[in-house]
Amino acid sequence: MATDAPDRKTLDHIKTILRRDLKLGPDAQIADDMPFFSSDVDLDSLDMLLLVTSIEREFGIKIPNEAVGRQVFENVTTLANYIHEQMEMNPAKTQATGGANGPADLLANLPHRDPFRFVSKLIEVKPGESAQGVWTLTGNEPFFMGHFPGRPLVPGVLIAEALAQLSGLIAPDREAMEGKLAHVDVRFEHAVAPPADIVLHSKLSRAMGPLQHFEVHATQGSETVARGSLTLHKRAVAVPGN
């Protein structure tokens, strides 16, 4: 690991991410040699996953799981040095995780059932990579009776749940996964009134142990109605007949 003084801009960017993602506040003092472990900001596995995901997205690098440890993440400076090295090498690599599977049978693996299933059909599932589906609403669903009666709107929390259900299907071939929501950060940009076909999109951006982090968005027609990210804490479940 390089020990030269890192670029000040990189250090400041990392500190901005830390204040935001760890909710430290904009005025929190963060020293260049502040450790990530055994300190006031001792990171748990979810904190680490969210931090790594933000670093990858904002610096345009990939951090392999084997690098997510106490050497790279010893303190803010060691992380800044690692980022600088990765940006200089520019290792723009993509991993093929297999082609799209036929989605018809996968929907049956979803552990949710009516009236709490919010994925009506699957368009495409790339195991371990991404998925796309549709939630079709007629306006006759029971929850509309109390959600702005007479001028119903699709509850945003249910759009987020639909995105989480879709994300739960991004799993290896012949394996169903159940997941509990560990973190949700979804912003709602447009209201949706029924009847509607909401197209759901999810992409796996990082897996770390039982935690899987997804970039998600939902669209209606040409409009993006929701976008953000969510994290599932997953456990493998045997599929009947396997």
Write structural notes for this entry.
With about 240 residues, the chain is α+β, with helices and mostly antiparallel strands. The chain folds into 2 domains: about 10-90, ACP-like (Non-ribosomal Peptide Synthetase Peptidyl Carrier Protein, Chain A, Orthogonal Bundle); about 105-235, Hotdog Thioesterase (Thiol Ester Dehydrase, Chain A, Roll), CATH 3.10.129.10. The chain has 4 helices and 6 strands, in the order αααββαββββ. The protein has helices spanning about 10-20, 45-60, 75-90, 155-165, and strands at about 120-125, 130-135, 175-190, 195-210, 210-220, 225-235. A 6-stranded antiparallel beta sheet has the order 1-2-4-5-6-3. A hairpin with a 2-residue loop joins strand 5 (about 210-220) and strand 6. The N and C termini lie far apart (about 45 Å).
